[in-house]
Amino acid sequence: THNFTLLNNGHTIVGIYTGNNPISLRLTGGGLNGIYEFLQFHLHWGENYKSGSEHQVNGMKYAGEIHFVHRNIETLKLAVLGFFMESVSNTSTSNIIHKTTATDIYKTNNSTLVEWQKYFAVSEYLRLMNNATTINLNLASLMGSNLNNFWRYDGSLTTPPCTE
After folding, report:
1. Which residue has the higher pLDDT, 75 or 94?
2. What are the recorded GO MF terms, alphabetically (predicted)?
3. Which of 34, 41, 54, 156 has the fewest CB atoms lying closer than 10 Å?
4. Architecture of the domain delimited by 2-143
């Protein structure tokens, strides 16, 4: 697990790494050239259970999408890992729990559920711009367990500064 500052920047809640071991958060492979260091993660979500994702698959949108932003340590180019999220109702508590679509958290990966519950418990207090808090999270658990199936493409950022 690693320490993060969660900050409401007025557009979304950003998770900024505040630990002292960035090497453990490096990204390589998957067709990428070089080593990419983790910069931050952020979420995109909508007003209902199927309008928040920036991307679509076969015309289907999801409740949300989480982005893990990395930067190449030599070229400074960015690589963003995006994961779809869907909203499901937990009948035992009637709360909304978010999960990645790549994992059935109720059967195979409880650590994913635990990490998301920690995130959403503290993000409740970040409704106002510039509100911040610290949290200890396991990024790998937030991603889920199936990292072998993915799409890769060149593009630009959809959040400021919207660089190509």
Report:
1. 75
2. carbonate dehydratase activity; zinc ion binding
3. 156
4. Roll (3.10)
